C-alpha cells in the first residue's frame, strides 16, 4: 500500500485547512456572481497590501490560463516570447501559449533553469524587420522548473534589458511564494520592485484549490497603454471568468492573510532541505541542482526507479540521465522525509 503523501508534486497535496475554512465561510447564502462580491473585494485588497497600490488583479482557475492570458495581454500575433528551453509554457502547456497568443515561443538554453541577459540578447534580433517575429516578452519562472531561484539582481537585469527595448518581463510565479521565502523577500520585493510587468501568481501549489491570479504592475510600457485595462475581456474569452468567483477569491485572500503564504512555503522549502540532507548521506544519490525551493532533483541508478515507485509516486525528469524529481508540500512532514529516505537507502543497497 502506497503512503498517503508522495513526493511527486505539490499539486498532489490537499488543501490547507485554513483555506478550506475560508471556502466554507463563503458558502453561506447568495452573492453576486462574476467577482462582484465581498470576498473578491477582500482578496483584491490583500493583493494591494502585498504588492502595493495600483496593481490590477484577475482571479483565474489555473496556472496555464494565467500564463497564456497574461502573455496574450502583452503581445500581438506577430510577436515572440523568449523563455527557457525547459519552461512550463514551452514544455508542459500543450502549445496553449502559442495557440492563444499566436506568438512564437523562442526557447533558449538556461543553465540551472535560469535565463541570463547574455543568452537572451543572442536571440533578441530582427527588431523592426517585417520578415521576423518581434521579440516582445521575456518570460521567466520563479522558482524555476528545476527548483532553483533567480537572485534579485538577476531578475532586475532581465527587466532592465527588456524595458530598454520596450519589451515586457513576465514571471510564471507558480511557486513565487517558495522563491520569495528562499530569497528572504516579500512578495512585492520579489516581483514588482525588480521590474516584473506581469505575474502569474500561484496559489494551488501552495495550499489552495484551483485558485490562481494574473497580476499587472501597471508599468504602461510598450504600446503606450496599460495592457491590464482590457484583460477582463481576455479572461472572459479565455473561459476563465468564474461565475462563483468568491470561492476562488476567498482562497487567495486566506493565503495572503496572516502570512499563510509564507508559512506554507517556508515549511515545504524546509522539508526539501531536510530531504536533500538525508539523500546526501546515500552515496548512490547525486543531487543535480541546488536545492533552493521545495524540489530536489537527483540522479539515481535506473534500476532503482521502478522499485521506489512501487511505494512512492514521483516523476522521472530525465530518462536518459536517470534524473528524478522529488517535491515537498505544505503538508510534508519530517516523518515523511525520513521514511522516504530510508526506502531510497534500502533500495539502493540491494
Key phrases:
13 helices; four-stranded antiparallel sheet; seven-stranded mixed sheet; 2 domains; alpha/beta; Aspartate Aminotransferase, domain 1
Provide structural commentary.
The protein is globular, with a radius of gyration of 20 Å. A seven-stranded mixed β-sheet has the order 1-7-6-5-4-2-3, with helices on both faces. The longest helix is centred in the C-terminal third of the chain and has 20 residues, at 260-279. It is built from 13 helices and eleven strands. α2 (38-51) runs parallel beside α10 (246-255). With 350 residues, the protein is an alpha/beta fold. The chain has two domains: 17-255, 3-Layer(aba) Sandwich (Aspartate Aminotransferase, domain 2); 261-348, Alpha-Beta Complex (Aspartate Aminotransferase, domain 1).
- The strands making up the biggest β-sheet line up spatially as 1-7-6-5-4-2-3
Low-confidence stretches: none
Query: Percent range for helical residues?
Result: 25-40%
Kindly state the mean pLDDT as a whole number? 95
What is the highest CATH level, the class of the largest domain? Alpha Beta
Q: What structural class should be given to the helix and strand makeup?
A: alpha/beta
CATH architecture of the largest domain: 3-Layer(aba) Sandwich
Number of separate strands: 11
Beta-strand percent range? 15-25%
Order of helices and strands: HHEHEHHEHEHEHEEHHHEEHEEH
The end-to-end span amounts to 21 Å
Largest pleated sheet: 7 strands, mixed
Corresponding CATH superfamily of the largest domain: Type I PLP-dependent aspartate aminotransferase-like (Major domain)
Number of helices: 13
Identify the overall geometry: globular
Amino acid at each position: 500500500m502506497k503512503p498517503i503523501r508522495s513526493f511527486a508534486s505539490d499539486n498532489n497535496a490537499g488543501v490547507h485547512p485554513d483555506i478550506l475554512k475560508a471556502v466554507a465561510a463563503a458558502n453561506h447564502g447568495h452573492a453576486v456572481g462574476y467577482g462582484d462580491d465581498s470576498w473578491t473585494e477582500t482578496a483584491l485588497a490583500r493583493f494591494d497590501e502585498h504588492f502595493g497600490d495600483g496593481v490590477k488583479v484577475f482571479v483565474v482557475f489555473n496556472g496555464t490560463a494565467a500564463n497564456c492570458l497574461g502573455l496574450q495581454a502583452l503581445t500581438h500575433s506577430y510577436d515572440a516570447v523568449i523563455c527557457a528551453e525547459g519552461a512550463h509554457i514551452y514544455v508542459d502547456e500543450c502549445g496553449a501559449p502559442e495557440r492563444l497568443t499566436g506568438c512564437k515561443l523562442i526557447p533558449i538554453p538556461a543553465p540551472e533553469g535560469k535565463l541570463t541577459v547574455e543568452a537572451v540578447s543572442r536571440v533578441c534580433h530582427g527588431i523592426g524587420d517585417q520578415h521576423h517575429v518581434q521579440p516582445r516578452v521575456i518570460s521567466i519562472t520563479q522558482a524555476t522548473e528545476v527548483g532553483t531561484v533567480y537572485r534579485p539582481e538577476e531578475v532586475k537585469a532581465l527587466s532592465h534589458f527588456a524595458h530598454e527595448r520596450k519589451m515586457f518581463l513576465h514571471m510564471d510565479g507558480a511557486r513565487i511564494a517558495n522563491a520569495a521565502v528562499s530569497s528572504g523577500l516579500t512578495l512585492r520585493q520579489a516581483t514588482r520592485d525588480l521590474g516584473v510587468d506581469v505575474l502569474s501568481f500561484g496559489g494551488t501549489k501552495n495550499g489552495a484549490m484551483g485558485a490562481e491570479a494574473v497580476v499587472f504592475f501597471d508599468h504602461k510600457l510598450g504600446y503606450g497603454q496599460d495592457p491590464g485595462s482590457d484583460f477582463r475581456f481576455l479572461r472572459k474569452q479565455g473561459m476563465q471568468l468564474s461565475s462563483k468567483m468568491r470561492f476562488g477569491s476567498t482562497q487567495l485572500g486566506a493565503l495572503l492573510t496572516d502570512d499563510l503564504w509564507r508559512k506554507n512555503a517556508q515549511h515545504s522549502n524546509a522539508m526539501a532541505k531536510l530531504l536533500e540532507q538525508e539523500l546526501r548521506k546515500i552515496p548512490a544519490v547525486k543531487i543535480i541542482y541546488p536545492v533552493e525551493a521545495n524540489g530536489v532533483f537527483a540522479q539515481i541508478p535506473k534500476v532503482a526507479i521502478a522499485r521506489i515507485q512501487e511505494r512512492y509516486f514521483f516523476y522521472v525528469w530525465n530518462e536518459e540521465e536517470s534524473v528524478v524529481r522529488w517535491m515537498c508540500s505544505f503538508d510534508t512532514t519530517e516523518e515523511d522525509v525520513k521514511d522516504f529516505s530510508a526506502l531510497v537507502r534500502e533500495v539502493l543497497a540491494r
